[in-house]
Amino acid sequence: MMIIRPLAATDADALLDLAHKAGVGFTSLPADPARILSKIEASLAAFEDQVDLNYEQSYMFVMQDTTTGKIAGICGIESTIGLSSPWYSYRIGTLVHSSRELEVHNSFPTLYLSNDQTACAEVCTLFLDPEYRHSKNGSLLSKSRFLFLAQFPERFESKIIAEMRGVSDAHGHSPFWDGLGGHFFDMPFADADRLTGLGKKEFIAELMPRHPLYINLLPEEARAVIGEVHDNTRPARKMLEDEGFRYQGYVDIFDAGPTLETQVQDIRAVRDSKHYTASVQDNMAAGDTPYLVSNTSLTGYRCTMAYLNAPESGPLCINTELANALQLQTGDPLRAVPLFGPRP
Question: Where are the CATH 2.40.40.20 domain residues in the chain?
């Protein structure tokens, strides 16, 4: 069984292994031992702290294979962003140049350096070990965060975003960076990516141009990848869009990957999730529908996927194995939602 739980102090080596597998472009999980330890400490503190949206709290989770004990993936939620250091993105806008005398009217798409997404929550740091990319594990890992959001909405801003990894090749070359950022930073994409992952973001404000940039003046290769995602990120983008996230014209300043956004209350799995009371039964047959199911604990949060027949109301029958994985007993509260929404 695959279980989602909060990040623990003992997970450092496993996270470093995942970071090496993620490679260049995955800025939220750099392959740096000191940064990973910092990430663990921040997450441990978030689960223990009182609610305070005046500063950032980082909630990190891992997927663990209960059969082998192996850490198979990681995901996270930021309570709010852009408060301790500026949050940068490009907003795609339009500039119009016209001359009545010459009867010329032209509209030009532009990139504006912005901090518009300051004080949004963020789903982040989603990575699944390639060996485990099967059996709906990706859906479980990503969507497990939504049951946590549903259970503890007071810990997060009401608007939430998701930065998608942009286009880069296996060698760490980004067409957008080569066509734009590289001219201002005088360093390879991989180096800028690494500095951002290490939390060193001051150079962005110091070196990035503040005036609008005309997209038409960029090389064709750079223009083509604006708002596009890395091949490995396509399933994650579709999954978020199926849950209600939408692209609203914001892209990453390094690789031009799209930022998706929505209101927390409008996420399908948040909106449709229900509270139940657990009824633990031995040798209970599996149900027909895959469900996300979690306990309602903060520090002891557990979430997994199970095939259930959930009633509209009343107790939810679960077998002993599922109850043990979620650390539940008969009478305990739990939360559940179908893993997938209804087909259109």
Answer: 273-338
230 given a catalytic annotation: yes
Of the candidates 165, 166, 340, the one whose C-alpha atom is nearest the C-alpha of residue 242 is 340
Q: Is 42 exposed, middle or buried (0-12, 13-18, 19+ CB in 10 A)?
A: middle
Q: Which residues of the chain have pLDDT under 70?
A: 24-25, 197-202, 205
> How far apart are alpha carbons 22 and 270 in whole angstroms?
28
CATH architecture designation of domain 2-84+116-175+224-268 = 3-Layer(aba) Sandwich (3.40)
Residues forming CATH 3.40.630.30 domain(s) in the chain: 2-84+116-175+224-268
Signed CA dihedral, 143, 148, 153, 157: sign only: negative
Could you report the per-residue pLDDT of 76-129, keeping only the tens digit for each? Answer: 999 999 999 889 899 999 999 888 888 888 999 999 999 999 999 999 999 999
- The token duo for 226 is 């604006």
> With a threshold of 0.70, does the pTM exceed it?
yes
Two tokens at 242?
């199926």
Tokens coding 216: 């038409």
Catalytic option among 20, 105, 134, 230: 230
* Cβ atoms of residues 166 and 251 within 8 Å: yes
Q: Which amino acid is at 303?
A: C
CB 214 within 8 A of CB 108: yes
Q: Is 231 exposed, middle or buried (0-12, 13-18, 19+ CB in 10 A)?
A: exposed
Query: How do 274-281 and 213-214 pair as beta strands?
Result: unpaired
d(CA 129, CA 139): 13
- In the chain, DSSP finds a helix count (H) and a strand count (E) of 11, 15
Contact criterion met (CB below 8 Å) for 54 and 91: no
CATH number attached to the domain at 273-338 = 2.40.40.20
Q: Give the whole-angstrom CA distance, residue 309 versus residue 293.
A: 12
Q: How far apart are CA 304 and CA 144, in angstroms?
A: 7
Task: Tell me if 67 sits within 8 A of 1, measured CB to CB.
Answer: yes
